[in-house]
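To start, an entry.
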Amino acid sequence: MASNNWASHLLTDLPRAADRTRADIIFCPNGVGPADTRAVVYLQDMFHFVFKAASNSAARIAVQRAVRAGIRALSHPYHRVAIAVSPAIALAAESRFRVPIEIVPNGVDVSDLLWHGGGASVLVLGGIGARKDEGTALNAWAAIERPDGIMLTLVGVEPKQRRARLRLMARDLGIGKSVVIRGMLSRGPYLKELARCVVSISCSRLEAFSLPVAEALMMNAPIVCSDIPAHLDLIARAGAGRIFPQRDSAALGAIISEALHGVLPPRTGGPVPGWDWHSRAAQQIDIFERYVLDPLVAKDHRKASMRRSGS
């Protein structure tokens, strides 16, 4: 691509590349795309729609809002559909979009692995940024009776400064010797950790979809989640798992104690039908055909979009 500028790449280079390759669809993540009727915008990251919850920088928020709003104003009259990975992000994004939003959750691939337990860890599904709220799990662990030999293992914690802060927190709580805090794992080792844990936990305060939770459910692993909308949707779809109120370490601790005594959260019984990548890809292709490739639907929707935008 010729452009050094992100906006020029998005607005100019992508359509040119689509012309050269005779592409039918320009698939555009993060809710922004070129002014092109082939563009399908993808809503997969809550960061781009709930700025205050995702960033502590007021200047960064203002710049992001201005740039994205400008591109949307230019491009949206040409767009025919957006695809969201969950009802939660669709709801957060709908005020910024003048096109239909279809919901297709992420596909889940766990390489045929299933949970078998037998390990000695309560596994916390951590991540990048304070919104993952792993500290709630540390507080819960400190408040309960902890069997000898069982560790609270936090994985995926990034960057290293967050790992240092959480290790200090664990030491101050008096649980440092029964806590392991690790950074990002490659896919194979991570899924193996998930397959043998006693129970898995997500304390996150903000997610668009939560792939780690979906992977746990797909693997028939026992999972405990904070009660954010993305988690509630996954738990309801799977008919498994347990929920605790956000930041409620006492409630989480009670659930962990039950799991340590053999009372596990409800599980799926095996892979959830329709959650695999093949099924999700088929759903997306159906949306492409209905909104973008069907000339009658596309023509009618283009007119509707132009009217709603005031053009």
Summary: Confidence is low (pLDDT under 50) at residues 298-311.
